[in-house]
Amino acid sequence: MSELHNREVDPVTGHDTTGHDWNGIKELNTPFPKLVIWALVLTFAYSVIAWVLLPAWPLGRDYTRGLWALDQDEEAVTGYRALETGRQGWLARFTESDLEELRADAGLMAAAYPAAQRLFGDNCAACHGTAGQGGPGFPVLADATWLWSGEPAEIALTIRHGINAEDPETRYAEMPSFDWMETGDLEALAQFVAGLRDGTADAGSPAATLFSENCASCHGEGGEGGLGVGAPSLTDQAVIYGQDAATVLETLRHGRQGVMPAWTARLSPAEINLLALYVAGLDTAGDEAGQ
Amino acid sequence: MTATLTYSERRVGLALSVLLTLLGFAMAAAARQGVMSVHGFMALALGLGLAVRLGGALYDPPPPRERMQRYDDAPTRFGIAMTLVWAIIGMAAGVWVAALLYWPEATPPWPATSFGRLRPVHTTGIIFGFGGNALIATSFHVLQRSARARLADSVSPWVVLLGYNLFCAWAVTGYLMGSTQSKEYAEAAWYADLWLVVIWITYFALYLRTLARRAEPHIYVANWYYLAFILVVAMLHIVNNLALPVRLTTAESFPVWSGVQDAMVQWWYGHNAVAFFLTAGFLGMLYYFLPVRSGRPIWSYRLSIVSFWGITFFYIWVGSHHLHYTALPYWAQTLGMTFSIMLLVPSWASAGNAIATLNGAWHKVRDDATLRFMFVAAVFYGLSTFEGSFLAIRPVNSLSHYTDWTIGHVHSGTLGWVAMIVFGAIYTLVPQVSGRVDMASPRAVEWHFWLAVTGTLVYVIAMWNAGITQGLMWRTYDANGALSYSFLQSVQAMAPYYLLRTIGGAMFLAGAAICAWNCRATMRAAQGEARDRPLVAQPAE
């Protein structure tokens, strides 16, 4: 079939067709657009310049280093160091161990506060909430009662070594199981503890005696907590696992042993001190956020 | 299916069905339990079903003698139906996981419904289920018409389509049961990968055999693209999936690649899946259906040749741009970046060639929603290839990488370009193979078009905003050298965008559902078969 005979001129563009015909599909013999050639030249020039300046072509066991001789490992380290240097003006101060003195320096604390907020958001908020409001299984940090202590130095210790963590110096705390108790006693005790929250617990009941014999040594005579042994207050509306009678019964039967990880491997000593001061400040700064 | 097969073809089909049944039985028996055994039973069920159907129809009247003087459109019709089935599955999974990102607490308590298992159901369902079936179905149509020849035989198109869909079903059900190779877009188990190789070789052979019988002296450009798609995807699939099974009786395997070589092979595969699965084949679709629907000649023959070789040559190099600032050597990153920039020229040349083809047919673009689908596809092809080259520039990538900008970019390509050209092709092809002038409801096509365009824009714009916001929040430091935002704040900032994305995706899904309904109605109201005929009748085998 002679293609030349099939050529025709397209009335819209004025170009002739190639003479090919596929079931009605034709193609115009439009000349190759100059714009495309220039675009190819331009992008090729960009590439050649990049190849000359940057590491680009492999040469067996080596590669062309490029005129700029860039190394991405060095760039990453240099960039990180530059940022670190920018922080040294204030962050280095936090390596000091006298946290009270640091807390008294209002200017320093103001400079460090945004960084402390980010550190808290990136490392603590996933469990303790963005404002330290806690949640089921995770203690509230924004109220006035503490499992261990609200002193910054003690908080720093908790952050460093954790609670029940895989760390030789970790804090240790366990709510033991009271499954040896009679079911009736357990249920009465659970009702009593649930009542501590809203003040409806009957101080003259047999359950009150059970409480004072079995619970008070850790949770305090009135359940007010704050003894610094890792046992929560049962009167401050913020029990870790919940304070309805059913949950308390579950806790009494099976015990609890929550874990707070140790952070020394991830955070620097200065960052830990900064965070400790930030968390210590949450109970005054975050009264509204606490639930 | 059986009505178009001769007695001997039905016998071949029956034998193959029995073989598939035996294979399924062997898999189930060897594995005894777990994913592989479920997959064995699936193959067994498919084989048995086909055997019953073919065996039952074995002595039915043979097809009319003039069968050989017609095109073989039954596989295309089946492929289009599967395209739409997978569109609904894949897009519904997509909308579901998009909603989970906005309401994560709504995750149901069953392992099969976790985000991690459903996300590959979405990607595989769309890329392989929807995209793959559309490519195979349209390739049969385009190949026969542009070669003016009937498919080389009547059994292998069914082997390709049924076998391919078994692969997709194996892949997707495997993910739901927790089986994955953990390679993005290549999660399917080793035996599914081997199965796909067999199917793919059958497909390639069928394509070449039909092309060899063409009644036209030249091979139309659409066929080059389809061939590039078939050939390169085979190469990518085999190299990336090289793995040693832990046991021949379980789905688990170890990839032969490790470390940074594994990452490089994976993204060489991953990006060329975009290039040759999601681009080359769909360009073949564009090069055929756009001139057919607009009634215009391709604007420039020369440009289509140069674009084809430009795209096939440059794409193969660019996978390393997925690994900027990683353990991959700097030199490989530079090469990926520079070839990505050069790639823009043939990509835009293709988009420009398509849009210039519409010169003289703009009134049709205005009036015909089907042609508008193709026009929008060409525009989004241009947009997303520009965006791709731009994101491949190393410093730009330092902002965009790991953010939702990547998701936005992918969907501007898959919703705006790939799905739009598929719908344009479907609305051209379905009436034709149903012997009709138009779809059952042209108004529904119009509705689908606007839902698809609006859904795409809402989705893509939301993700651009989300990605750039994330990228900036992650890298902003205050004057004291501390990060300005915690990671959690960047997650909270995503909420409005994730909601918008869910809405955009739901609109797109609604459009696809309308399309599926319309295609079903059209095929049910078919007035005979396609009226065009091959130029030269095929000799009977």
UniProtKB/TrEMBL annotation, chain A:
Cofactor(s) essential for the protein: heme c
Pathway, per record: Energy metabolism; oxidative phosphorylation
GO CC terms: plasma membrane
One GO MF term: iron ion binding
Binding site for heme c 1: 124, 127-128, 260
Biased composition annotated in UniProt, kind: Basic and acidic residues: 1-10
Region annotation Disordered: where it falls in the sequence: 1-20
Cofactor: record remark: Binds 2 heme C groups per subunit.
Record field: transmembrane: 35-57
Single GO BP term: oxidative phosphorylation
Binding-site residues for heme c 2, renumbered to this chain: 175, 215, 218-219
Keywords for this protein: Cell inner membrane, Cell membrane, Electron transport, Heme, Hydrogen ion transport, Ion transport, Iron, Membrane, Metal-binding, Oxidoreductase, Repeat, Respiratory chain, Transmembrane, Transmembrane helix, Transport
Cytochrome c domain ranges (all copies): 111-197, 202-283
UniProt-annotated location(s): Cell inner membrane
Quaternary data: Component of the cbb3-type cytochrome c oxidase.
Family: Belongs to the CcoP / FixP family.
Function: C-type cytochrome. Part of the cbb3-type cytochrome c oxidase complex.
The protein's name in its UniProt record: Cbb3-type cytochrome c oxidase subunit
Source species taxonomy: Bacteria, Pseudomonadati, Pseudomonadota, Alphaproteobacteria, Rhodobacterales
UniProtKB/TrEMBL annotation, chain B:
Details of cofactor binding: Binds 1 copper ion per subunit, denoted as copper B. Binds 2 heme groups per subunit, denoted as high- and low-spin.
Coiled-coil stretches noted in the UniProt entry, renumbered to this chain: none
CDD domains given in the database record: cbb3_Oxidase_I
Domain Cytochrome oxidase subunit I profile stretches: 14-511
Keywords from the UniProt entry: Cell membrane, Copper, Electron transport, Heme, Iron, Membrane, Metal-binding, Respiratory chain, Translocase, Transmembrane, Transmembrane helix, Transport
Catalyzed reactions: 4 Fe(II)-[cytochrome c] + O2 + 8 H(+)(in) = 4 Fe(III)-[cytochrome c] + 2 H2O + 4 H(+)(out)
Membrane disposition: Multi-pass membrane protein
Family from the record: Belongs to the heme-copper respiratory oxidase family.
Protein's name in the database: cytochrome-c oxidase
